[in-house]
Amino acid sequence: MATAAKKLTRSGAINYMHPTIIGVIASAVLTLLVIVGSRNLEHFDSALFGYTIASIVAFGAIAFRYAIWLQRPATRTYFRRGLQLFFQRKKFAANTASAATTVATNLVAQKFIFKRGTMRWLMHALIMWGCVIAALITFPLVFGWVHFELEGDLGYRAYLFGIPTQLMQGRDIFAWIVFHGLDFSAVMVIAGCAIAIHRRLKDRGAIATQTFLLDFVPHMMLIAISVSGLMLTASSLWFEGYMYSFVAMVHQATVIMTLFYLPFGKLFHVVQRPASIGVELYQRRSREMPQAVCPRCKTEFVGQMWIDDLKKVVGELGFDYRMANGQTLQDYCPRCKRIMRGLAYAGLPDTKEKVFYGTREEAGHTETTKSEKSSQQ
Questions:
Q1: Which of 5, 142, 156, 193 is least enclosed, having the fewest CB within 10 Å?
Q2: Phi then psi for 216, rounded to 5 degrees?
Q3: Are residues 300 and 335 in contact, defined by beta-carbon separation less than 8 angstroms?
């Protein structure tokens, strides 16, 4: 069959210098935006200083971690090829529409999770939208980009980057919803995390692969943030501020710990997920390009661009799958790979008998090889 895969010296080690510089620059840029957006700290609330410092450090750490992630051969190939395909002039409009479709289906509606189960989709939707709503409210307030001012008996006026916006009546239903937005998001997160933990405790497939640090700690931290946030609301509304300072310190501590955990734990997939836009585009464009033909059964099975990129990634990882006949293992279709492996295990020579080729049936129709197509014509 083929020569055994030989482990070679890896072509490149992880470079920490560039990611470190990127992380420092990201923190510096966010610091500048905080100063500018709060009108030279005029609208910055000093009581939120701890949240601000933690957010700036975490943002730099996220940029650092993302830069490290992009150094992986497979990730780097997908990322570069996705950008290359997206900015093709002739297909820019189609690529933009494709990206918008991916955002709507995979990021907003999360249909790929709905296929795995309604309850799993509900769980992800509650956690995702609860965190998104909380982030959209919290970070602008913490950074001083948004603040409220009381205007006599009229109500509160919101200021965005120092620019006055809509006036909200203090007892209006809209104002009540806005002021309690974090409470609604906290309830959503708690419900989503409860479903997730229940699944982790009951689903045998999840139990077999899960770990406490990666699969339980993130949910516990999100629940701690949500519960302590609700306790702040309860303390101010119903308990006349009883233990408000202590609860506020606990809430701040849990938020800071979660921000520091974000770049290096399972929650980092929230930052990685938008990269699926490029992967979807890559797969769609690959199907439109010339297809690779299996040298054994002459069947077109995947885009040639995908095969070429796969060979490059495998080489960068330090593996050599070259065969004695001049081909590489990646040139063969999955079915022929399985047959060749079986023949090798059995010690049988590769043969041209039809029984070792067979037919392929997908979606109710039989695939024909390239040679068969030409003979039919």
A1: 5
A2: -105, -40
A3: no
What DSSP state is assigned to residue 322? B
Please choose, from the candidates 332, 376, 321, 330, the residue with its C-alpha nearest in 3D space to the C-alpha of residue 356.
332
**Residue 146, SS3 per DSSP:** strand
For tokens 């109500």, name the residue.
155
| Alpha helices per DSSP H over the chain | 17-37, 49-69, 73-86, 92-102, 111-114, 118-142, 173-179, 181-202, 204-209, 217-238, 244-261, 269-272, 276-288, 304-316, 334-346, 370-376
Identify the three-state secondary structure at position 296: coil
Query: What are 303-355's pLDDT values in tens digits?
Result: 899 999 999 999 888 888 888 888 899 999 998 888 888 888 887 776 665 55
Q: Which two tokens stand for residue 206?
A: 């999840």
- pLDDT, tens digit (0-9, with 9 covering 90-100), for 72-97: 998 998 888 888 888 888 888 888 88
Look up tokens 């090889």; give the residue: 369
Backbone dihedral region of 354: left (phi > 0), alpha (psi from -120 to 50 degrees) or beta? alpha
Distance CA 130, CA 128 (A): 5
pLDDT of residue 370: 47
- Is 5 a residue whose pLDDT tops 60? no
The vertex-319 CA angle with 305 and 64, nearest 5°, equals 75
Q: How many helices (H) and strands (E) does the chain have?
A: 16, 9
